[in-house]
Amino acid sequence: MNKKSRSSSWFYIYPINKKIFLLSKIIIGACILAYIIASAFSGWISEFIFVFLLIILILAWDMVLARMVSSPIHEISKAAQRMADLDFSQPCKLNTKDELQTLGDNLNTTATNLQYALAQRKELTDTLSHELKTPIGVIRAYAEGLKDAVPDKQIVYSQVIVEETEKMAGMINALLDLSSLEVGTTMMKIEKFDFVELVETVAGREYVDSPSGPFHLSYSLPDEPVFVEADQTRLQQVLHNFMGNAKKFVSKNGNIHIKVSILEGLMQFSIYNDGPYLTDDVWIKFHRDKSEINRNGSGLGLAISAQILSMHKAEYGMLNKENGAEFYFKLPITQ
Among 11-20, 143-152, 160-169, 301-310, whose mean pLDDT is lowest? Predict the structure, then answer.
């Protein structure tokens, strides 16, 4: 806290302080008025009236404080206890228009976020259990088969076990990566680099060094460098996911087209492939289409890509075309 904010906090009067300050001045004025009224009488009657009025003022003070402070605090305490017991059925309802109402609203927000986090954890646990059930079952079946298998079969069974183990390891690593991105524990290393050069490098690895399946690759890239400021390693991960998906889902003898264009100070990357119609569910964790071609995927690549692009505040999306689908994202150009 700097000196200015520290000094201003000394002079700031919070709403609840204003209420108590005003109420205390009213009580003092009422005490003075009670004394004046009692002075109009003489003897024990004067003392009796003064004490009677004081008792009424004290009871009134207690009632007002209970309504202004004690009741809201009690309501907040009950709401906090319900939240501790994971009971989110009743929100904290206050209408005091002061710090206590703000505290209650913050408690409600915390309860909502906690409820969402618990739902996400349950969904993740259920999905992960389902996803790991198949490879674990395969590993168990082939491990049991190793007992009585002939040497040639033992080699085959061992290879299947290794492949299923690698599949599980890849899924878990991808899930941990996505989790670290979502909670913000992964720090981005922002640097300036030529995006066109990065696209050429990743495309070379995906389509030249490790080609798979018959398809026609074309591209449209600027002749000049296009510089952006971003996390180069993470964008390389996004490009690998986009290009890998295009290669996986392109129809036989279909087209894959990579394009980098400049639109009003923004760099737009897009990749199109002939293939099936897609829905917006492709960005959801563990999403897979119903085709056999995607049975070995983790279903996390596009979810990770979406999280990375969101951290860069980049516009991104998917568009269905006449014969296929196009994925794209945009980033500001750096001179």
Answer: 11-20
Phi, psi for 65 (deg, rounded to 5):
-65, -40
* pLDDT per position as a tens digit, 83-106: 888 888 888 888 777 777 888 888
Confidence tier at 292 by pLDDT (50, 70, 90): very low
Indicate if the pLDDT at residue 259 is higher than 80: yes
CATH annotation of 123-183: 1.10.287.130
pTM here? 0.60
CATH architecture of the domain covering 190-332: 2-Layer Sandwich (3.30)
For the beta carbon of residue 263, count every other beta carbon within 10 angstroms: 9
CA distance 175 to 195: 27
> What are the boundaries of each domain within the chain?
3-85, 123-183, 190-332
Rounded to whole angstroms, the Cα distance separating 90 from 275 reads 49
Q: What percent of the chain has pLDDT over 70?
A: 86
In this prediction, residue 7 carries a pLDDT of 45
| pLDDT score of 293 more than 50 | no
CA distance 178 to 306: 10
pLDDT at 272 over 50: yes
- For residue 272, what are its two tokens? 């199109």
- Residue whose token pair is 């689908």: 325
